[in-house]
Design brief:
alpha/beta, about 300 residues
């Protein structure tokens, strides 16, 4: 690319008035020529001041035609004028130099998708749960680019060549979760473009403080994993676990849960680990029933 490519930053948003302002401030303060990028907030039906805040900060506000993060991303992509489309979540903040580093990776014409690092947003006060998730690298991007099937990147910090969407279509709105993996996998299967990881391009992401919210988040992720397995199982080397293997795995988890929660031991990291595993299993069971596939 000659010179700086024009970039569209797309931010899907649903009731994020508490954090959206900080997100937009971090995006608008990037060391990238201001006339070479636009910021689009794709509203997903917010009932708070999120759309108003976006307009006040100078972002273009578009409305998603239906609920769902994939639909919001598609609304933003459809409105985007950029050669490069960069995605960040509304509750995240971008580090200095983020946009420049993301765009620079596309100087290689073989690159179709770029993922940047996702690091924890340091809060003034942190809970035991937050510290546990940070230590586990719960949201770390490097685990996604090492996916055993094909590399993928989480859309909290991702960028795509606009041509990718022109060639393979938009995000799959039938997926409740996992639309980011799906777009990367389709790109690599249907085109010669590849995924690259730029750890220097950092986005800061808040971590859940409420166990119930974490349970819901992890359950939705697992539900989406089942849908992805069903969609790609003809290509994946991964197999669904057999009944015997599943029985012993669930039995072990149940016994650990009873020991930690019923007896109320002081092993807080152990309880948080079980919380993650139980919420994941609930999502897998729900997804397997809904999609009529064995993947529990």
């Amino acid at each position: 690319m000659a010179g700086e490519p024009f970039v569209s930053v797309v931010i899907p948003c649903l009731n994020e008035e508490e954090r959206l302002g900080a997100c937009l401030d971090s995006v608008f303060s990037q060391d990238y020529p201001r006339d070479r990028y636009e910021v689009i907030v794709a509203d997903n039906g917010s009932t708070d001041r999120s759309p108003a805040i976006a307009g006040e900060k100078g972002a273009v506000v578009v409305k998603a035609s239906r609920r769902g993060v994939a639909a919001a991303r598609n609304a933003g992509v459809s409105a985007a004028r950029g050669e490069i489309i960069v995605s960040i979540d509304a509750d995240c903040t971008a580090s200095p130099g983020w946009l420049r580093r993301m765009a620079a990776a596309f100087e290689d014409p073989a690159v179709g998708c770029v993922g940047g690092a996702i690091e924890p947003l340091q809060e003034r006060e942190t809970s035991e749960l937050q510290r546990f998730l940070v230590e586990k690298g719960y949201l770390a991007q490097d685990q996604h680019v090492r996916h055993p099937f094909l590399p993928m990147v989480a859309t909290a910090n991702a960028a795509y060549r606009h041509e990718v969407f022109d060639r393979i279509g938009l995000f799959d709105e039938s997926l409740r979760s996992g639309e980011d993996a799906d777009i990367c996998w389709r790109m690599q299967i249907e085109t010669d473009f590849r995924v690259v990881y730029v750890p220097e391009a950092v986005v800061l992401h808040p971590y859940e403080t409420d166990p119930r919210a974490l349970f819901r988040q992890k359950r939705v992720h697992a539900y989406g994993q089942v849908a992805l397995f069903k969609k790609y199982r003809g290509r994946m080397r991964e197999r669904a676990k057999g009944f015997k293997e599943t029985y012993w795995e669930y039995r072990s988890l149940l016994l650990r849960a009873l020991r930690l929660f019923v007896r109320k031991t002081g092993d807080i990291p152990g309880r948080n680990q079980v919380l993650l595993e139980v919420s994941w299993k609930f999502g897998l069971i729900h997804g397997s029933i809904a999609h009529r596939v064995w993947y529990v």
